[in-house]
Amino acid sequence: MEEQLTEIPLPIIKIPLPTPFPVGDINSYLITADPMTIIDPGSHYQPSEEQLDKSLERLGVNISDIKRIIITHGHPDHYGAAGRIQKETGAEIFVRDEEYKRLAPDRDYINNMRKSLHTMGLPEEVLGTSAFSSGNIPFTHPIEKVCQYTGECSLDFSGLKLQLLHMPGHSGGHTCLYWEEKGVLLSGDALLPEISAIPSIEYDLGMKNLRVRSLSDIFSSMEKIERINPYLCLPGHGDPVLDPGVLAKTRIEFHKNRLDQIYDIVPRGSENAVSPYRLSRVYYPNVKGFNKFLAVIEVVSHLDYLADEGRIEEFMDEHGVSQFSRQL
After folding, report:
1. pLDDT digits (tens, 9 = 90+) for 243-261
2. Element (H, E) at 112
3. Pick from 52, 10, 48: which is nearest to 31 by CA?
4. In this structure, are residues 294 and 300 in contact, taking their beta carbons and an 8 Å threshold?
């Protein structure tokens, strides 16, 4: 059921939408100020699209009233329905330039992502559960046209302005929207009330192991939220958060504790070095299916951070797979 956010007067309505994923509902947000805008309209999933249509009808909103669609990041539960809305309404779709490649992955992007995933030692049966095993992104409508932006710009509405803040970590081009006048942060998945969002996997051809340092990005984004210290956070999943700056600080501490835990299971001696995938099976021994893929992404982001700090060592084996160990 859509929810009028009444903590402070806001022209923002939360519309929870079901997803086919274990994370559960996603929060879509309708900004009723002109031009009417929807943030993260959910996935190409019949229960979700039906719920969105019913919610708009209850609100007295015709889908043709929507003029803009903002995608916080390129994960299907957040943007999959955007192409359908654009096709029906002609609405503009806004996404950060760094994130566009996720919406329309070309062959180079897919090949580079597979190279990056290969360095983690993923067996083929686990790699095959990822979207990078093909060019097809499930639960998404095709998107015809996108308005890309870069840097930290803003969008104007009647009576308010939303800053588009780059908050990478969960995704390389993740955007949060900030209404500075009211201290309201629409955080997407950068900051969630119940869980710490999983770090992203992004390729970096300039790194020997081909991986972006996503945990460092998460720390930087959480520190940014601490600095701006919003009054209220409207997240991509779950309930609104008061004192988001405090929650952001706890997320940093969470990952610092996880760094210590993962450090403790890294074997001593280069002759005993192991791949990120093997370590993920130690840290998460009971996960199955697609969660094996998520587990290795979580673990490798922490391993890269530990290696950059000099706490552990890494070498690339003859197969191009990262191997990690502690000094004797």
Report:
1. 999 999 999 999 999 999 9
2. helix 107-118
3. 10
4. no
